[in-house]
Amino acid sequence: MPWYVLFTKPQNEKKAASRLQAMNITAYCPLRMEVRQWSDRKKKVEVPLLPSMILVQLEEKERNIVFQAPGVVRYMHWLGKPAVVTEEEVTALKEVQAAKNNPTIQVETIQPGTKLDLSSMGFKAQEGTVKYVSGNQCWVVLEGLGFVIKMEM
Predict the structure, then answer these.
(1) Mean of the pLDDT values across residues 16-33?
(2) CA atoms within 13 A on the CB side of 127
(3) The NusG-like N-terminal domain covers which part of the protein (predicted)?
(4) Of the residues 38, 73, 91, 152, which has the maximum number of CB atoms within 10 A of its CB?
(5) Are β-strands 3-8 and 42-48 bridged in parallel, bridged antiparallel, or unpaired?
């Protein structure tokens, strides 16, 4: 069965995923730990790795059943068809999420136009081009997928 990408209402990723799982639909919302600071304390919270998106695995003929869950907005489309995520990409996301010690990437002199090999980050044979660098962040264009990812260095 293929994995599809669903858009959710803002900050509804975890709730929508749990509602879909309650409907016996395989749903996956990759999460990461982040330290948030309030005026009186710091706290570790789980935030979605893909903002306003979750992954669902179901048959093509059952795709409309997801709209019964509150918080689900629409499917992501690519080239006029629903975007499909491969099993290898979902496995890579799960491995990154499960890793306690995520490897840190050190980049010394990175300039716009530099080609980066992203296969070590779970992207199968994917190369990205640095589009923009600002402070400790850079935007990398994935031409094959039509996406731009923001990386913190």
Answers:
(1) 91
(2) 4
(3) 2-93
(4) 73
(5) unpaired
Instruction: Give the three-class secondary structure for 65.
Output: helix
- pLDDT for 72 equals 93
How far apart are alpha carbons 43 and 122 in whole angstroms? 28
Structure tokens at 37: 């600071």
* Cα radius of gyration (the chain): 17
Nearest to 86 by CA among 132, 134, 125: 125
* Residue type at position 84: V
Q: Which residue has the tokens 């059943």?
A: 65
Is 140 a domain residue?
Answer: yes
What pLDDT, in 10s, does the model give residues 126-151? 677 776 676 667 767 766 666 666 66
pTM above 0.85, yes or no: no
Domain end, chosen from 72, 98, 124, is at: 98
Beta bridge partners of 121: none
Single-letter amino acid code for the residue at 121: M
Quote the number of domains for the chain.
Answer: 2
The pLDDT of residue 106 is: 41
Supply 21's token pair: 């799982």
Residue pair 67/59 in contact by the 8 Å Cβ criterion:
no
Domain-located, residue 90: yes
